[in-house]
Amino acid sequence: MIGSARIKLRPWQQAAVAVGSAMGALLDPRRADLIAALGETTGKPAFERVLERMKRSPEGRAVLLERPRVISANVGHAWDLPENTFGAAYARFMGSRNFSSDDRPPVRFMDTDELAFVAMRAREVHDFWHTLFGLPTNLIGESALKVIEFEQMHLPMCLLSVVGGTSRFNQKQRTLFFKHYFPWAVKAGFQCTDLMCVYYEQHFHEDLEDVRRKWGIIPAPTAPK
């Protein structure tokens, strides 16, 4: 259950968790639990705005009503879809990296079940966005996706992740990111539809390029050799 492990924090406790999570995540960006805690403790106003947008969208309302979870039991059929489909592209993305949709940390610091679901949904659609934008999971790809996530949700954690990620770039990576990926990500995040209002699972059977056009997705640029 999304809300079964939720913890009610006082304001000073919330600030302490946010600071501790931020410091830990900067030291070790692989700590998904710290990044998740940072997103929750600093992102409540942003998640509230996302929730209101979802309530105004027919497809977003359906997501809120049915509360689909991106877990293997629910998305496993993507592996059986035709190779041109969005679902098959997602399956290839996950399978080629030995990723599991069941590995996301639970939401712990949201006040209500509804906000907890929105926070969990934002976490679980991350790999759908990787697939749609054609971004790798290396430091450059993750930093670029965080730019798009910030434009879509205005989560402080996304901005902090970009700062933390780019601080670890070597000179070649920094040049590549700011010359090619950053300008693209700013444009891509601004141009596409409100991605939190999309019921992705209902579009698995559709052609990948068709859903990209429908949602205004600009795929990532090819990195120069």
Can you walk through the features of this model?
Belongs to the COQ4 family. This is Ubiquinone biosynthesis protein COQ4 homolog, mitochondrial. It is found in: Mitochondrion inner membrane. Lyase that catalyzes the C1-decarboxylation of 4-hydroxy-3-methoxy-5-(all-trans-polyprenyl)benzoic acid into 2-methoxy-6-(all-trans-polyprenyl)phenol during ubiquinone biosynthesis. There is one protein chain. The chain contains twelve helices and no strands. The chain has helices spanning 11-27, 32-42, 44-56, 58-66, 72-75, 86-96, 113-124, 126-133, 139-153, 156-166, 171-191, 208-214.
Q: How do the SSEs run, as a string of H and E?
A: HHHHHHHHHHHH
Q: Given the helix and strand composition, which structural class is it?
A: mainly alpha
Low-confidence blocks of residues: 15-19
- Count of helices? 12
**Average of per-residue pLDDT values:** 87
Key phrases:
225 residues; mainly alpha; 12 helices; 62% helix
SSE order and pairing:
Blueprint: H1 11-27, H2 32-42, H3 44-56, H4 58-66, H5 72-75, H6 86-96, H7 113-124, H8 126-133, H9 139-153, H10 156-166, H11 171-191, H12 208-214
Please outline what is shown here:
This protein is mainly alpha-helical.
